Amino acid sequence: MTTTQARSVITGIFGHEFRYAWTPDEARDLVDAILYGEPEQFAQVYVWDRPCRQSEDGTVHEFPPGRLRITTDRENGWGALNYMHPGTPDGDLVDSFNPDTDESAPVLLFDDEGGLLFPRSASLPLDQVRGAIAEFCRTGARPTCVRWQPGEWF
User: Fold this and answer.
1) Is 1 contained in some domain?
2) What is the rounded CA–CA span in Å between residue 154 and residue 151?
3) How far apart are CA 52 and CA 58, in angstroms?
4) Are 53 and 38 contacting, i.e. CB atoms less than 8 angstroms apart?
5) Average pLDDT, the chain
6) Between 116 and which of 9, 31, 111, 135 could a Cys-Cys bridge form, CB atoms 3.0 to 4.6 Å apart?
7) Is residue 4 part of a domain?
8) How confident is the model at residue 27 (pLDDT cuts 50, 70, 90)?
9) Confidence band for 83, pLDDT divided at 50, 70 and 90
10) Is residue 79 pLDDT above 90, yes or no?
11) Residue 75 above 90 pLDDT?
12) Is residue 117 part of a domain?
């Protein structure tokens, strides 16, 4: 009997631009683009058995249920994460949590179009954000390398 392991595809969405990663090197490049690429400071990442896609007219909308949303403040070295996966036992909507947050941590935008904000306690140093994105790209599950708190926004 032969077993075939499904190959994951990572979809990164920057604004309305879709980028895909099939290999570990491409995944690393995608993480770098999320953290340091221009001009977007907002990204979403999906891990699935095929590329996510969406048509211009909205008739095609193919995404898995789990998603990692990332906001970065590159100039100051901060980022925040939002993980959503409906129906999971560990909470279907959570934001990153930094127990050491103080007034020096920025309040980051969750959504630039809606003006929604992350709580200040969601702000993490970019190296922690990098680790969480990389873990999500490998596993497709909520990253365990950072702490989480209940989220407000989808």
Assistant:
1) no
2) 8
3) 13
4) no
5) 88
6) 111
7) no
8) very high
9) very high
10) yes
11) no
12) yes
